[in-house]
Amino acid sequence: MVLLLAVCSATEAGAQTPESDSGFAQLYHSGQSAMAAGKYDEARSAFEQLEKINTSVAEVHSTLGVLCYKLGDFNRAIEEIRAARKLKPGLPGLDALLSLSLAESDKSREALPGLEKAFRSGADPEVKRQAGLELANVYTKLSMDRRAVEVALELRDLYKNDPEVLYTVGKILGNSAYLTMQDLFHGSGSSVWARLAEAEAHESQEQFADAIKSYRSVLKIDPHRANVHYRMGRTDLAQWQSSHSP
Hints:
By secondary structure, the chain is an all-alpha fold. It has helices spanning 2-12, 22-36, 40-53, 58-70, 74-87, 94-104, 108-121, 125-141, 145-158, 163-188, 192-204, 208-221, 228-243. 78% of the residues lie in helices and 0% in strands.
């Protein structure tokens, strides 16, 4: 709801309806009221009727774009936003909404420039937040992992207590860590670092026997590796606390 109002507020400010057609104006305001009340299907129906009555009102198309985005009809949202831009290129708020809709429609490369602009220079905090989330996901889809991580870290700094942001950031950073470890195992699978990572992964998953085995393989490669004996002892203790086996 917050994003809907953030994007739509700019298009509604200065929205004009044909004053000579009182029926059109009444239906327009009825649709706005339904939208403000969260009755999006009802609002969409009203604005679709308005579109049939007069196809040349940019605000009708833009509001329909917002409603279609909110209802998950992203392809229709793209059509309506582009129609509004054609009628009134300077209507504010549409570039960000178009980019968000393109991203949701898996048109990642097409969405990318607009998302970058909305995230870097967007004035509205909620639009900036949503653009950042989409931008991080688009970078990931396009295998632009470094940029995805950079955006994720920025989002974490900007929205420290936002659950959706933290979830997305964790997913992206976790994916980056996974890919890094894959490179480690594929390129240097027999190295002390690969064996150490393997041991720590087993230990974190409480696979104690496998962890001890991997720690021992570390010591075969480097008998003097610091802290490995301590970690083995810690794992032995955890295994005993779990099973009370000798």
